[in-house]
Q: What sequence folds into this?
């Protein structure tokens, strides 16, 4: 895994930008564009990063997409830019070229997750620091503020509540969070691939692909990037288990890279 801000790497990337008819930029939100906070509502995008994203999206060959585990409505509000593409709920919702798409049976999923969220809140109420976030098509059970010795009990409770519905729903672990989602082939990698196909149907495309993410839910997208000889970038500590080929240490370095990308984004000159 190489450090993306190495000068030799940036020089090589600059040459590819010059030659690429399209540059696809995919960015996770929590832990990538913003630091992870104790509570999700505290993770706010800085005004400087928002300006850079706005400037990047104005370049004709730059196609920018925010790929998040948050609900579509929420992530669009947090970013506050209309001319970007959005992926919400780990790929279950997309908004591409102002056209929205969601997973089939979304009404039944929302009803089931509303019921499950109430039950999990009730059964974890005695455990301080547990936050149950209903995102419509997925549930997040945050335990960052919980006592470490309570974590096994939290996982046991959540697992027990999902077990009767295990044929239709699954649990994925993230950074101090349990994600409950419907079993489907849709994930971040699936959504990213669909977006690429909408803009770039050629199998021999010279387009450039970059994906930045920090968590296990980004691994499907990392795998896709590698298959397309794109740039899969893990934000955070290097992990041998990750499929990412590159890394940045923290969201501040993502901001530095985006600033560099803005400066070195070459159109016809």
A:
């Amino acid at each position: 895994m190489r450090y993306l801000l190495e000068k030799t790497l940036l020089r090589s990337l600059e040459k590819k930008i010059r030659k690429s008819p399209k540059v696809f930029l995919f960015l996770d939100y929590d832990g990538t564009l913003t630091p992870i906070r104790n509570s999700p509502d505290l993770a706010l995008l800085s005004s400087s990063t928002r300006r850079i994203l706005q400037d990047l999206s104005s370049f004709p060959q730059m196609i920018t997409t925010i790929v998040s585990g948050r609900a579509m409505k929420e992530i669009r509000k947090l970013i506050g830019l209309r001319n970007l593409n959005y992926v919400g709920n780990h790929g279950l919702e997309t908004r591409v070229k102002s056209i929205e798409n969601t997973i089939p049976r979304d009404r039944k999923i929302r009803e089931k997750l509303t019921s499950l969220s109430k039950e999990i809140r009730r059964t974890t109420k005695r455990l301080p620091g547990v936050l149950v976030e209903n995102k419509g098509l997925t549930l997040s059970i945050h335990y960052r503020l919980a006592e470490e010795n309570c974590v096994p009990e939290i996982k046991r409770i959540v697992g027990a509540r999902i077990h009767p519905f295990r044929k239709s729903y699954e649990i994925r672990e993230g950074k101090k969070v349990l994600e409950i989602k419907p079993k489907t082939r849709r994930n971040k990698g699936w959504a990213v691939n669909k977006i690429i196909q909408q803009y770039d149907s050629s199998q021999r495309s010279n387009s450039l692909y970059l994906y930045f993410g920090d968590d296990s839910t980004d691994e499907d997208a990392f795998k896709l990037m590698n298959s397309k000889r794109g740039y899969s970038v893990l934000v955070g500590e290097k992990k041998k288990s990750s499929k990412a080929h590159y890394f940045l240490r923290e969201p501040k370095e993502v901001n530095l890279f985006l600033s560099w990308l803005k400066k070195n984004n070459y159109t016809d000159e």
Summary: The chain is about 35% helix and 20% strand. Residues 106-124 form the longest helix (19 residues). Helices lie at 7-19, 47-57, 72-79, 106-124, 151-162, 188-199, 219-227, 251-263. The radius of gyration is 19 Å.
